Amino acid sequence: MTATNQSSLELKAVSVRVGGRATGYELFAPLSESFEPQQVTAIMGTSGSGKSTLLHVAAGLRPPTSGGVLLGGQDLTLLSERRLSQVRRDQFGFVFQTYNLLPSLTVYDNVALPLRLRRDRQVRALRVTIAGMQRVVFMCGPAGSGKSTRARRLEAEGMARLSFDQTAWELGHRSMPLPAEVHRQIARQLRSELERLLQEGRDVVLDFSFWSRRMRDEWRAVVEQHGLVPETVYLATDRETVLARIRERAGGDGDDFELDHETAARYFDNFQPPTPEEGPLTVVS
């Protein structure tokens, strides 16, 4: 948490009580402390001791049971909810344990939202900054969801596209699912290619199914070794549409592998949708 207006932050006899009247208890005793601009403070304690609650109180995210929270001499506990919302938006930065992103928005739109709410002209500069950043996109969804169509759009815009299915096709395979050893071989090949592209500074879209949390975590670890955080785009297409699209496949190229109904249904039913806790997520439905 950071107070951004270079004002001191002061806690005055702050306490928080949780639970009901009969069974409730004081999470921490009245606490007084002051924090000066550019001061770095570590709050330590065992799990459940109230560390996160104390930070939430200090940032105006929840009111204390008693006491005051002063930012630049202004007591946050006395402000209206509207005014407090403005103070939080304009004067605090808070890094949560989970990302707390809006899944319907892109990464850029999530970052730009508070700037737009306060009509900040820096939103344009932010777009330029993000446009210059290296991107890695996980195109995520079961077979037939439309992920390859969307991935090809990004490829047309200049991103390098890596695809399990396309690589399998180029290696001469014409049916799915692939044998386990072939799948591992392709995974090694794609990982090597991804490493090369990231070292060159290229933007990359991974056109995989990313059907499980474990798979996404494994590839995310590869990307994070390069100091990058991948974006996940999840194609949340309904089951009926997915199966209908697969029935229409003709096996003409690497994006058009034919699948029997049982295999396609199994792919869909066993798919593990990504969650915002995994990282930046855009859901397309």
In short, what is this structure?
38% of the residues lie in helices and 19% in strands.
Description:
With 285 residues, this protein is of the alpha/beta class. It is built from 10 helices and 11 strands. It has helices at 51-58, 81-91, 107-117, 122-131, 147-156, 164-170, 180-199, 213-224, 239-247, 261-269, and strands spanning 2-3, 9-18, 25-35, 66-71, 74-75, 92-93, 136-140, 160-163, 204-207, 231-235, 281-284. The strands form 3 sheets. Strands 8-9-7-10-11 form a 5-stranded parallel β-sheet, sandwiched between helices. α3 (107-117) runs antiparallel to α4 and α9 runs antiparallel to α10. It is elongated and about 70 Å long. The two termini are 34 Å apart.
